[in-house]
Amino acid sequence: MEYIHQAQYYETDQMGVIHHSNYIRWMEEARIFYMDQMDFPYKAVEEAGIISPVLGVQCDYRSMTRFGDRVSIEVKMNSFNGVKYEVSYVMRDEKTREVRATGTSRHCYLTREGRPVTVKKALPALYEKMLSMVEDGKGTEE
Question: Fewer C-beta neighbours within 10 Å, C or N terminus of the chain?
Answer without folding.
Answer: C
